[in-house]
Amino acid sequence: MPNSSIEPPEFDATRARQYLDPESKEALFQQVRRFLEQSLLEGRFRANRPLPSSRHLAGVLGVSRNTVNAAYQELVALGLVESRPRSGLYPIAQPALEPRAIRGLQPTPRTAPVTTVPTRQVDWAAKLPTPRDADLPHAAAHADWTRYPFPFLPGQPELRTFPARGWLRALNTALAGPHLAASVRDAVDDDDELLVDAIRREILPPRGISVGSEEIIVTSGAQQALTLLAELLVQEGTAVAVENPGYVDAWHIFRRAGAELIPRTVDAQGARRDEDGSPTPSLVYVTPSHQHPTNVTLSYPRRAALLREAQLHDQLVIEDDYDSEVRFKGRPTPSLKSLDRTGRVVYVGTFSKFVAPGIRLGFVVADAALIAALRERRRYATKHPPGHLQRALGLFIESGEYHRSLRQHRRHLARKWEVLTASLEEHLPFPLDPPAAGGLSVWVGGPPEFDGTRVTELARERGVLVDAGERFYLADPERRHVRIGFNSIALEAIPRGIEILGGAIRDQLAE
């Protein structure tokens, strides 16, 4: 005989069990709680009678008494049910609501009048703003790149060459002894002093940069660095010069901050100042060491001209030095920051291209006043990057493991570059322009009838991942380029992968 506190026939096993889904990811006691909550709101329990016992309800629902008790405890915590000593659990009077339909069940209408509340779903399209950058292209995302036998990608690591032992040792040390406090503390807006000192003493001098710790801030990768800079330096309508082709993610970051993007054409000497009547920018964004994506190096005359122009027009220059350490021939060119004497160059560095993109650590070097403003901005966004990762990276650099691994990685990349360029010369059906001896990719251009976008589709079908050059253009997009990375692919897989890519190119040209 059913409990007298429940109004039959609404409360029956068939109806109750329809609320429970054993395949659901939601915990069973939460499903029971949701069923009871709905029944309370529909008025199926009398206010002056106790709720059914856990034994009885467990039998009706076919669940354990512990499951029912857990659901009852949540209802008490939500204020829908109260416990009366030596009497049981009783419903607490709630504002009358229109009965809700859950999982396809239509509640039985109540005879007492109720105040109806609209039950329409949220119109998120109306509530969410339209992004300012909705018209910009997106960089290719290859989340499933490990499934492909020939991933010619620059932005993903070759997993077997990652210095796992050294990095694991640094992570463990960072949680021991005097390092534990730095790893687990709430640093508010401070950075790990060991990492900042390692950047100042070990990372920046080879780039010709000498600064104090107050001129460095650690960020969650280069993207957070660019986002913080855009929030501070870009207002609605601010003209920002960017390279074309260039770094797509930077375009999105600046546009979202309200920038008007001014494309600057890239040729064999890097970005040039186009005399096309476009507005004089307030901010210039460049990747001078290895231009993204063409890999060319900004020539010294253009570097000097860029700095003169910045001084003349009171401009700021953001130098994104994302892979300056990856050079295979000759001496590295000096950074723009090392040539700057007026504090106009803001230097952005990252550890993503060598250590690993998943670690998400980078840094900004700039005048102390700008760093202080970035620090305050970061505090109310993310406070600081994870202390454990910061301390581990500082230890990784201080121990010498960073530079040892970097030298090995550079030699390995140089060998990959040699094999890749030789394979391209063998299998491309058109001449290969001399590629830059550095970076993590080769920018390949073909004849007018070459369609790089179509080639990427054909290549993907055959297990080869490359990036279509068309994606990297802000203005006047060209389809006759592909970017072939070699960071993620194994050395021994390169010749066969390029042979397959060459076949896809020939098939496209035949089309």
Task: Kindly state the number of beta strands.
Answer: 15
Give the helix proportion (percent range). 25-40%
CATH architecture of the largest domain: 3-Layer(aba) Sandwich
Low-confidence stretches: 1-10, 97-112
Question: Could you tell me the mean pLDDT?
Answer: 88
> Largest sheet at a glance?
8 strands, mixed
Structural class category: alpha/beta
Number of helices: 17
What would you call the shape? globular
Identify the CATH homologous superfamily of the largest domain. Type I PLP-dependent aspartate aminotransferase-like (Major domain)
- Please identify the top-level CATH class of the largest domain: Alpha Beta
Strand order of the largest sheet: 4-11-10-9-8-5-6-7
Strand content: 5-15%
Question: How is the secondary structure organized here?
Answer:
Blueprint: H1 13-17, H2 28-41, H3 54-61, H4 65-77, E1 81-84, E2 88-91, H5 124-127, E3 150-151, H6 164-173, H7 180-184, H8 193-203, E4 216-219, H9 221-233, E5 239-244, H10 248-256, E6 260-267, E7 270-271, E8 283-286, H11 300-313, E9 316-320, H12 336-339, E10 345-350, E11 362-365, H13 368-379, H14 387-398, H15 401-427, E12 441-445, H16 452-461, E13 464-465, E14 467-468, E15 481-485, H17 494-510
Parallel strand pairs: 3-13, 5-6, 5-8, 8-9, 9-10
Antiparallel strand pairs: 1-2, 4-11, 6-7, 10-11, 12-15, 14-15
GO molecular function, one term: DNA-binding transcription factor activity
Family: In the C-terminal section; belongs to the class-I pyridoxal-phosphate-dependent aminotransferase family.
Domain HTH gntR-type: 26-94
